[in-house]
Structure formats: structure tokens, C-alpha cells
UniProtKB/TrEMBL annotation:
NCBIfam families: PRK11609.1 (NF008623). It is an enzyme of class 3 (hydrolase). It holds the Pfam family Isochorismatase. It comes from Pseudomonas borbori. This is Nicotinamidase. SUPFAM superfamilies: Isochorismatase-like hydrolases.
Length: 210
């Protein structure tokens, strides 16, 4: 699987949100989410540079449906920065659900980037909060390290992987999404829409992870 990938010294594997709450039995389980763990571990062994993201919400986060009486998970409401999908409470700071999947084995990962910790704004992308203006600092980190091409794997294809890929292109990086090492929620056609948007932005979509 990894032999044909042949990443170079300016390539980085970006592992998105492989956390307990997004896997089987979690508060916001992505169908087949556990299936990416072994794939990601094998991929990571081929990369000298690996970075992990971790959803990290405070209790009572504004994206939680529980904070909006009369609304349910997966409803869409308007917040000051625009449309926001409401979610079950998930990846709460310090909880088991927020922990990285216990079988994720990437000891050489160089950075864990936490996102979604501002109570008033959600953060799908590894690069920007959902207001589309507030940066996480990842672009500067990658540039200073001399990393130019990003390979994305993880959860969920149509949300955090999708927005991270788009913002990677927005920041001028080459971006490859390894589709076999991702899984999506696919709510109301969101997966097909995300794939079209990524391709339109110049993201390379690889059906397998090789």
C-alpha cells in the first residue's frame, strides 16, 4: 500500500480527527470510521513528516445542538459567522471521546494541532476556524518547515478533511486526499458535494491510498 506512494522530504501526512467520538460507539460516529486506523498507521510509516489534528471542544460549545433549545443534531442554524450544522456533544476537552483512537500508532508524529476550542466558533479545517478568517497557524508552520505537499487521511471526508483540503489549496499547498483512508458522514449528499468542491479547487483525489 505504501510502496507506490513514495513521499518526499517536502511531503506531509495530515491525519484528521481520528478520535474515539468519530469511531464506533462514539458520540458522532462516522460510518466505518474505525476502518481508517490501520490504513493510517501503514501510511504514516512511509512519511518522515506526520501531523495530527484533534477536535477539542469546551463543554457547552456553540456548535452543540444541546445549546440551542428546539433544535436537534444535524439541524442548520445561523451563527454570527454564518451557517452552522449542529452536532451532538462530542470531543469535549479531556473526555475519552476526545482522545485519539487507542490503536492509532504514529509515535513519530511531529505535531498535534487542536481545533474547535473557541466556544463561539466551530472549526472543521486544520487551517481556519469556521468564520473563514481566524487562522490556526498551520500554514505558517508548514511554510517554515519547508513542507509543500499535503496528503490527507482521516475523518470525516465531507467535513474536516474536505475543509482542510480546500484551505490547504487556498494557502498554496499541493493537496492529495487519500480517499481509501478517509470515511464520510454523507448527510444529505454532503460527500458527493465535498468531492466535487475539492476537485474544483485543484485537490487530487486518489481512490486508493497508494
Amino acid at each position: 500500500m505504501t510502496s507506490r506512494l513514495n513521499p518526499g522530504v517536502q511531503d506531509l501526512l495530515l491525519v484528521v480527527d481520528v478520535q474515539n467520538d468519530f469511531c464506533a460507539g462514539g458520540a458522532l460516529a462516522v460510518p466505518g470510521g474505525d476502518e481508517v486506523v490501520a490504513k493510517v498507521n501503514r501510511l504514516a510509516s512511509a512519511f518522515a513528516h506526520v501531523l495530527l489534528t484533534q477536535d477539542w471542544h469546551p463543554p457547552g460549545h456553540s456548535s452543540f445542538a444541546s445549546q440551542h433549545p428546539g433544535h436537534r443534531p444535524f439541524d442548520t442554524i445561523q451563527l454570527p459567522y454564518g451557517a452552522q450544522t449542529l452536532w451532538p456533544d462530542h470531543c469535549v476537552q479531556g473526555s475519552r471521546g476526545a482522545e485519539l483512537h487507542p490503536e492509532l500508532a504514529i509515535a513519530h508524529a511531529e505535531l498535534i494541532l487542536r481545533k474547535g476550542y473557541r466556544p463561539e466558533v466551530d472549526s472543521y479545517s486544520a487551517f481556519y476556524e469556521n468564520d473563514r478568517r481566524t487562522p490556526t497557524g498551520l500554514a505558517g508552520y508548514l511554510r517554515e518547515r519547508g513542507l509543500r505537499r499535503l496528503f490527507l487521511a482521516g475523518l470525516a471526508t465531507d467535513y474536516c478533511v474536505h475543509y482542510s483540503a480546500l484551505d490547504g489549496r487556498r494557502e498554496g499547498f499541493e493537496v492529495v486526499v487519500l480517499l481509501d483512508a478517509c470515511r464520510g458522514l454523507d448527510t444529505q449528499g454532503s460527500l458527493d458535494k465535498a468531492l466535487r468542491a475539492m476537485r474544483a479547487a485543484g485537490v487530487e483525489i486518489r481512490a486508493d491510498a497508494a
